[in-house]
Fold this protein.
Amino acid sequence: MLEQAITSSSLAGFDSFHAALIRVQPLAVLYANRLQLTRMRFIDSHSHLADTAFDADREAVIERAIEAGASLVICIGASLEDAARARELAAQYPLLRFTAGLHPQDAARFDASTQLPALEALLDAGAVAVGECGLDFHYDDAPRAKQHESFEAQLSLAAERSLPVVVHTRDAEAETAMMIDRAARDGVVGVLHCYTGSLALAERALGYGWYVSFSGIITFKNWTNTDLLRAIPDDRLLVESDAPYLAPVPRRGKRNEPAWVAHTIERLAVVRGVAPQSLADRTAENAARLFDVSPTVART
């Protein structure tokens, strides 16, 4: 799989010995003694690698992420089942860390008496954050009262464990702002993931020390809010794939994967007027600080 993924251009600058070595290295060696294939190094702060969309070729996807420069990928558990699988994957692949949470679109079936103990067990098993949780009033797949109940319960778990939260918000800005206020009172910080909301909500969260993460959406032709991309402070900015969703241009329409975060970084760097690697380094530092993690793949 590695040989198929490596192109002649990706080997530019390496001598024949190192080129051959890259082709024969097993995945485990890539983790322990990585040879840099590109100039980009980054952390994907939000990826659903536990999704069944990756069942057929997950290891190849992880290999490509390493080759593209990923030093860590946060594997999101947006349900009890996904979180359990994300935990297994994080134990198997040093590149991954996992989160555990309950997505707002599934809140109709939220049952505190059964789901919270299971969620607590996953959090206590090494999750780096609570989530993906939040509020989604766009589709209203779940009653809003149940979404609030689920979100509040997860904020409480985050406060009890001093963990950050990974927040999904769509068409629920006023309510999300109130929940951020509540989280702040309990000392909880988090990230507004795959952010497409207003500058006002972003500033509300930023005022409490939160982070804002951008996905491949910002590469789409219909994304016009470049002011928002410039407004987030350097020390509160994250990038993500949200794979398998929202593949960036020029991969739009395909199943997304962490390796393609590089396209999002490049677009964000152009808008902010900085070098892509500088932005990648800064967002990696921010992700490591938020999730209290250290990249396991050596940076060269």
